[in-house]
């Protein structure tokens, strides 16, 4: 059921094959199709790489799928936890409320919901994005200019929302864990009329806890409602809304200083925090979408999607900067500020796909148009007392008094608009040869100012996508692909003109395999990725910074496996090795990115006790580092973290599961993306009682 629901809106291939099928029959067919895959760690098909529904073996690019089953087994309740277990992705959690992600050495800024792109204004993710709303999350590595109009040659993350089921289904769970964690989830799907042509689903989440970090206490409420209405045998209307609110007490703005004035590492206790007792960071997101899918007949479909997102942030924060004096304290200074932001996004997407015959063979075609507008307004109200020295260890006790936030004011107001036309086709060249090609033509423009700096940028480009797949036999295939992407930028050069757009490209080749009727997918790839003309500060003219464009390249190999190894044994595993990540002069760049990562997630249904499932998750990464000042370098040595899980099915409806995280209690920094950092959680665990109907 899970796979069918996640693909329901994008393809309706099963439900729409028979023109004479009644609406309720369509829903029943979708439900039955996916039943065997409810515990799967892989997907049979995806649209995340090329606008066309393809199996992973038919997709000429590296793809990882994180299924609902894997998220449930290992309690991957937020996007950071999901991506930390995903092949080739590193999670750079620079603060308690802001996170960057990287793949193949570059920042991930391309996010989609059901294949519709969401431009990232900030370049990072704020708040704690819950995963209870999604059936599946796809990660396509490399440049993906066909699916995303602009961005970096890193990866695209596609969130596949839950959709209504045909019959009444319900589930609920209660999780209790370390640091007073309490999480309650509810998920109900039901037909809303006698015929079953209208169905709805509601997901509710409440999650709150204290923390191993001093004073830090996050709280989150999530609500998601979606309705499917079959207006006719060929037309489906879907309307949904998501509400997500994060209320965080004493978050860190910035993190911990990593070295003393004598150059030695600080090595603070794991729970150390620079936040103040009065610090808070509240974010609220409301997102509404409407999707209309119509089967035109003869295998052709048209789908239109409208989305409106309203995001608000409100915070009182304390940043601590400077270099502490070893054994004495001091050397650190206060920087209080109040930050308020509002962002609205309007998105529209229209896509047509179908099959055509040429040269006696059947081919596939997809084309369409997308529009995205993002408007951001933010304001910083700076607090009185900026620059006040914090004596002794007072930077870490949270007692700095709350100031009035009226020392000065600054902020941003800018608008970003992107218009895209795309065309993709899959040509059946021969029985064993398939060619996937396409073009993406995008016009991107921004206007406005941010903290006294112009945000004007404008670029129009056409980016190609080409991939070829050769079927070696029924299980194995070989592939090669070349993809491009670009990203406009507003930074100016020494003459005062905006820099030309950043340009990224990825070339990769590899082999893929699908075993056991596509229940197990495996791939191996070699890749080369480059990102050219990225802005880097080059100097100042008066008070204004000017920039130059710099180039960087990465190359490496990757292995990914996901699915059923044998009856009752599910696994996902991956290794990524960046053999090089260098700049214009051959120098190592982005040293905060681990050159090698390994991920393993596996569960096993015990044959002697079928009600018991046990599993483990292992994440390893190589050494990372960052240069602080001349002669001072912070190094995070290589490390591995181990997680364990066990689930016992008490009866048909009730189950109890236990999850242990960082079992080996490895102390490590969450990121070296910035010159400050903080420590990841020590050993912890949770227990979940779940009920389903």
Explain the overall architecture.
The protein is built from 4 helices and 35 strands. The strands form 4 sheets. It has a 22-stranded antiparallel barrel. Strands 1-8-9-5-6 form a 5-stranded mixed β-sheet. Strands 2, 3, 4 and 7 form a 4-stranded antiparallel β-sheet that branches. β5 and β6 form a beta hairpin. The longest helix has 11 residues, at 23-33. It is mainly β and 693 residues long. The protein is globular, with a radius of gyration of 25 Å. The protein is 4% helix and 57% strand. Mean pLDDT is 91; it is low at 1-36.
Descriptors:
mainly beta; transmembrane beta strand; transmembrane; 693 residues; 4 helices; 5-stranded mixed sheet
């Amino acid at each position: 059921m899970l796979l069918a629901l996640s693909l329901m809106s994008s393809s309706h291939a099963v439900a729409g094959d028979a023109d004479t099928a009644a609406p309720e029959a369509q829903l029943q067919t979708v439900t039955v199709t996916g039943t065997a895959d409810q515990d799967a760690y892989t997907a049979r098909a995806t649209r995340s790489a090329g606008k066309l529904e393809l199996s992973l073996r038919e997709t000429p690019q590296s793809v990882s799928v994180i299924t609902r089953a894997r998220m449930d087994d290992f309690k991957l309740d937020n996007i950071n936890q999901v991506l930390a277990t995903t092949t080739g992705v590193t999670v750079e959690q620079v603060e308690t409320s802001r996170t960057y992600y990287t793949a193949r050495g570059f920042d991930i800024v391309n996010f989609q919901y059901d294949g519709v792109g969401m431009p990232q204004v900030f370049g990072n993710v704020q708040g704690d994005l819950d995963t209870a709303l999604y059936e599946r999350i796809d990660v396509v590595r490399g440049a993906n200019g066909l699916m995303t109009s602009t961005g970096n040659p890193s990866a695209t993350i596609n969130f596949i929302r839950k959709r209504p089921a045909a019959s009444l289904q319900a589930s609920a769970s209660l999780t209790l864990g370390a640091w007073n964690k309490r999480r309650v989830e509810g998920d109900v799907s039901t037909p809303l009329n006698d015929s079953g042509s209208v169905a709805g689903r509601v997901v509710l989440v409440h999650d709150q806890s204290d923390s191993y970090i001093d004073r830090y206490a996050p709280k989150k409420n999530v609500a998601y409602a979606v309705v499917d209405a079959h207006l006719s045998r060929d037309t489906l209307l879907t309307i949904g809304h998501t509400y997500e609110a994060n209320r965080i007490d004493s978050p860190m703005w910035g993190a911990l200083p990593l070295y003393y004035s004598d150059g030695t590492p600080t090595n603070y206790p794991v729970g150390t925090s620079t936040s103040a007792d009065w610090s808070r960071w509240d974010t609220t997101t409301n997102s509404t979408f409407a999707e209309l899918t119509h089967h035109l007949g003869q295998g052709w479909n048209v789908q239109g999607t409208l989305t409106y997102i309203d995001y608000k942030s409100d915070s009182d924060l304390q940043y601590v900067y400077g270099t502490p004096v070893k054994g004495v304290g001091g050397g650190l200074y206060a920087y209080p500020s109040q930050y308020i932001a509002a962002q609205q996004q309007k998105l529209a997407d229209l896509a047509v796909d179908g099959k055509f015959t040429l040269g006696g063979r059947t081919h596939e075609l997809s084309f369409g148009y997308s529009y995205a507008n993002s408007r951001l307004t933010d304001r910083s109200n700076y607090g009185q007392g900026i620059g006040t020295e914090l004596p002794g260890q007072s930077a870490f006790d949270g007692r700095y008094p709350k100031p009035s936030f009226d020392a000065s004011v600054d902020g941003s107001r800018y608008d970003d608009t992107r218009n895209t036309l795309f065309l993709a086709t899959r040509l059946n060249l021969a029985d064993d040869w398939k060619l996937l090609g396409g073009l993406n033509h995008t016009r991107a423009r921004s206007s406005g100012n941010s903290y006294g700096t112009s945000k004007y940028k404008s670029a129009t480009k056409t980016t190609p996508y080409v991939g070829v797949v050769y079927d070696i036999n029924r299980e194995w295939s070989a592939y090669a692909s070349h993809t491009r992407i670009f990203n406009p930028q507003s930074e100016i050069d020494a003459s005062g003109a905006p820099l030309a757009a950043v340009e990224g490209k990825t070339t990769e080749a590899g082999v893929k395999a699908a075993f056991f009727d596509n229940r197990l997918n495996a791939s191996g790839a070699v890749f080369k990725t480059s990102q050219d003309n990225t802005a880097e500060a080059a100097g100042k003219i008066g008070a204004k910074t000017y920039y130059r464009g710099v180039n960087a390249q990465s190359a490496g190999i990757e292995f990914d496996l996901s699915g059923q190894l044998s009856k009752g044994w599910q696994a996902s595993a991956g290794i990524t090795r960046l053999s090089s990540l260098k700049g214009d002069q051959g120098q190592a760049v982005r040293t905060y990115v681990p050159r090698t990562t390994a991920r393993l997630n596996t569960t096993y249904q015990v044959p002697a006790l079928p009600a018991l499932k046990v599993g483990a998750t292992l994440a390893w990464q190589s050494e990372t580092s960052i240069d602080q000042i001349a002669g001072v370098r912070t190094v995070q040595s290589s490390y591995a973290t181990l997680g364990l899980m066990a689930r016992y099915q008490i009866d048909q409806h009730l189950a109890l599961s236990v999850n242990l995280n960082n079992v080996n209690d490895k102390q490590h920094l969450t990121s070296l993306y910035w010159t400050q950092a903080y420590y990841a959680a020590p050993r912890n665990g949770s227990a979940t009682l779940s009920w389903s109907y």
